[in-house]
Amino acid sequence: MDEKRIGERIAKLRTAANLTQAALAEKLGVSDKTISKWEVGGGYPDITFFPQLADLFSVSCDYLLRGTPRKLQKVVAEPPYGSNRGKENIDKLNDYLNAGWRVVQSALSVSDESACIMLVIEKEVYDE
Question: From residue 44, how far is each of 7, 8, 48, 83, 86 by CA, in Å?
């Protein structure tokens, strides 16, 4: 965990909620110096404070810890399993799925001469 980035997120959420450090501290039962320490990256909240902070600011604990998610997408268009490269392509797709990617769209194109499977896969990553 990056103390500085967690603190920056807390500060940004606190100011967006029009709370002073003292007001946030009172809601959490800590001192305003503790809030200041978190916000400048001198430490981060005890794990028990993350659900309270998430509820207070209407964000997830995951957002507080890791930042803003963004989605990466890839389009995979390959011959189907029965072709020469089919097994290799299934293995490659399994590698993506095991790495946290998920299928969000699929299509099958078939003609007299050929067939092709098209998949759109995506994965959430977090900006730090």
Answer: 7, 11, 11, 54, 49
| Nearest CA-CA partner of 87 in 34, 95, 51, 56 | 95
**Residue 2: closest CA among 48, 52, 65, 53:** 65
Which pLDDT tens digit goes with each residue over 79-92?
665 556 666 777 88
- pLDDT tens digit string along 11-64? 999 999 999 999 999 999 999 999 999 999 999 999 999 999 999 988 888 889
Inter-residue contact 56 to 14 (CB < 8 Å): no
Q: What is the pTM of this model?
A: 0.60
- What sign results for the dihedral spanned by CA atoms 8, 11, 15, 16? positive
The contacts of residue 21 (CB under 8 Å, 6+ apart) are 14, 32, 35, 36, 39
For residue 39, the surrounding DSSP H or E stretch is helix 32-39
How many CA atoms lie within 13 Å of 35's alpha carbon, on the beta-carbon side?
Answer: 21
